[in-house]
Structures are given as C-alpha cells and as structure tokens.
Amino acid sequence: MNLQKHQENELLYIGFNQDYGCFACGTDGGFRIYNCDPFKETFQRDFNKGGIGYVEMLFRCNILALVGGGRNPRYPPNKVMIWDDHQNRCIGELSFRSEVKAVKLRRDRVVVVLEHKIYVYNFADLKLVDHIETTSNPKGLCALCPYSSNTVLVCPGLQRGHVRVELYDMKKTTMISAHETSLSCFALNFDGTRLATASEKGTLIRIFDTATGDQLQELRRGADKAVIYSIAFNYNTQWLATSSDKGTIHVFKLNEKTSGGTKQIKHNNTNSSSSSNNNNSNNKSSSASASGSAAAASSSNKNDSDEKDGSSSAKSNPKSSFSFMSSVLPKYFSSEWSFAKFPVPESRTIVAFGAEKNSIIVVSAGGTFYKATFDPTKSGECIQKSFAKFVKGAADE
C-alpha cells in the first residue's frame, strides 16, 4: 500500500511478501522487515539520505526491489533498484520515462508497473520478456502468481473495469469484464487459478477462473461505497479476506465451485522469524544473485492436510432473510455477506492470512499490527490474539 499521498508518520509503504510470512515497510530513511507470526522486527536498513517509497520482497531471501519515494527519495522514482542486502548494494537497475507505480517479483520474473504500461523482465539477466499496455493505472494494480508451477500475470485491460490475464505457460490471454466501473483492487490465489476483483464502488468482490474467465462467486462487502485496499486468499482457496476504508476486515467462505480444482500450497512460515538478509549467500554477480535468490524462494507443493482445517465443515456465508425470493427481488437480497468480521480503529489497512489456521494478519498505515482468529464452523466476530505498535506517530511522541 502506497502511503505517500496521505503520510501519517515515517511510513511511505507497507506490503506483505509473497507467502504472507512477513511484511516490508518503506520509510523516510530506509526500509524494515517484520515477521508476522510471531510478530517481530527482523531487519532494518537505514540510509543516510533518502526515502524508500516501494519495497518488494522475494519471499525471505536477500534480494529486494526498491523504488525511491517521499520528500527526499533515495533513488529516482522512475527507477527500480534491485538490492542485494548481503552485499549491501544495488546489483541491477531498470530505468523508465515515467514514475514507477509498483513492482512484483517471483523467482524468474521482475514486473514493473507504470501508469499506462507494464514491463516483464527475466530476473537472471533483466532482459525484457513482454510489455503490456493498460488503461490509466495510477494505483499500480498488478498481480503475479509467485510460484513456478504457473506463470500468471493479471493487470487492468484497455477498457474501464476490464482485467487482462496473461497465462504465459499456456500462451493464452483471457480478457474479463469484471465491473462496470474502474478497478480498485484485485488479487490472485496462490496457484494463479482464481482471481478476486473489486471496483471503485467497493461493495462487491467477484471471483473468476483465470483460465476461462468465468465468474465463480460474488461476495458483498456492504451496501455503502468503500475504498478496497487489499484482498487476500488463504493457502487452500477456502477463505478470502478484504480490507477497506470502513475500518472492518471481512472474511468470506469460498464455495466449492471456487475452491474446487485448485492446487494445495504448502505453508512454510509457522514460527519462522528469519529476516530477508540472512537466507542466501550466493551473490557473485547480478545474474548469480537473482538465481540464488530464486533458489531460496518457496515453491508450489500439494498439501492435503491443509484441507483438514475445518473449512469443509464451515457454514456458508450469511444471506438476506429474503434470499428465498431472489428471483423477484433485486440482486442485493441474494448476496453472500461476510462470514466473519474484525473491526479495527484504523481506516487504511492491508490484510493477509496468518500461519496459524483460521487466522488473519492486519497491518495499518498508522504503524499497528493485529492478529485475529475466526471460528470456521460459526460465523461472527474475529477474536483479537495479538497487537503491536511498530511505528510511533506524532501523538505517541
């Protein structure tokens, strides 16, 4: 989440890594890495001069992508710097004619998002692989499947409310008319087979099959307009969570049509607190560093035990008491509402699923961290398990 327009403290950016095991913060003077469960600051890099407006991790290895930001950027905002924290220096850079809006990494790709274009590079040698034109994309919306088993990239199309899905392994492009209004947020599940989207209205979340473009499920966050800040699938595509400017985290149960046919992704982050700078030592060159970091990244694995987390016995999402009259009443009355909710005092947050089963992690622009759990067999409120304040604001001084 880019925080530069409405900066509350030293934070310029917050974002989870590919498997939600940790999150990175860009600040006015550098960047920090935090482990999610248990919560812990694992690394801090301070620069003498300049802010970091975007930090993209590559799982937990020593390679990161940095973009300068803030009042005094460390690097030009039109450059992506590939940073090797073992060598404490940049090992590669990509320059553009306009400001970089976002960067996405996986073990073999670097994806750079500009307002009207997306560039895809090979990680090992930073050679251009593809470029895609999009409609105006000031938020830098883009999703990249992080696992090697499926090379999928999602970006806005050329028309308002449309998304473009690039299935590189299948050499196929899927165009989806997701919403009538402009896109606000979207996210892929872990194996790249499902896509969740939200528009600028922020009332509905729609889930699609990335290969066919078919809509599989429609979820209702609320009736009032809202700004959706983040959407996240859990590891076995049984649950979906979203955060918005309304200050409530919503957790939805996904139906069999949505969760069926997806691969089970193994979760390796329980009780792990390793930092981004201590997992890889093969850094002899830019190419070697990128390749070494790729080897340290997690891969897609089947994990049948994840299916036994209580999800199969969970009730479906609540519906209106008038849903039995859906054939004659407006669509609103047949909507699926959230299964569980977690209110937070902050309005600008990002959410992900935790290493513990049936848990969510929430990080706010105000520098606060929450962990909460929900009962997969009973809808209702989430229970807060932990809280931390990792950045002091003006009121805390």
Distance between the termini: 24 Å
Supply the number of helical segments. 2
Largest sheet: 5 strands, mixed
SSE-based structural type: mainly beta
Strand order of the largest sheet: 21-22-23-24-28
Query: What percentage of the residues does DSSP assign to strands (E)?
Result: 35-45%
What is the arithmetic mean of pLDDT?
A: 85
Estimate percent helicity: under 10%
Shape: globular
The tally of beta strands, per DSSP, is 29
Quaternary structure:
single chain
Radius of gyration: 20 Å
Give the low-confidence spans. Answer: 269-312, 321-325
Walk me through this protein's architecture.
The chain has about 400 residues and is mainly beta. It has helices at about 255-260, 285-295, and strands at about 10-15, 20-25, 30-35, 40-45, 50-55, 65-70, 80-85, 90-95, 100-105, 110-115, 115-120, 130-135, 145, 150-155, 160-165, 170-175, 185-190, 195-200, 205-210, 215-220, 230-235, 240-245, 250-255, 340-345, 350-355, 360-365, 370-375, 380, 385-390. A hairpin with a 5-residue loop joins strand 5 and strand 6 (about 65-70). It is globular and about 55 Å long. Mean pLDDT is about 85; it is low at about 270-310 and about 320-325.
Summarize the structure.
The chain is mainly β and 397 residues long. It is built from two helices and 29 strands. The strands form seven sheets. A five-stranded mixed beta sheet has the order 21-22-23-24-28, with no helix packed on it. Strands 1-2-3-4 form a four-stranded antiparallel beta sheet, with no helix packed on it. It has a four-stranded antiparallel beta sheet with strand order 5-6-7-8.
